[in-house]
Amino acid sequence: xxxxxxxxxxxGIQVVDAQHQELFQIVERLRRMVQGQADRTAIEEQLQxxxxxxxxxxxxxxxxxxxxxxxxxxxxxxEHASMLSSLHELLAKFRESDQAMALMVPTFMEGWLKHHISxxxxxxxxxxxxxxxx
Length: 134
Description:
mainly alpha; Four Helix Bundle (Hemerythrin (Met), subunit A); 4 helices
């Protein structure tokens, strides 16, 4: 299964969509690296890239949400914090164990991205559209 971007994940917010696509690309690159038994250091660097890009993306989304007074911001912040905590934990576990842990990350991240965009981010987009802000 490939972590391929699908147009149904477009939110209509260009920078957010670009970052979502970047996250999907990182997840897919990580999957290929693990399946191809890439060097452990290279896989760890890709995991770190995933963490950094996720942090940047979440900050971008949160900035938009704060500026427009999104009413579900607190819940969205909690989802982001939980995801970042999970990513940091997975990275730490990878550093302690073998590549099997890295194989879990793309599957976990892809599922989370699809769910979060479809459920969490589109709630924000619906709010923006109701206020004619997109």
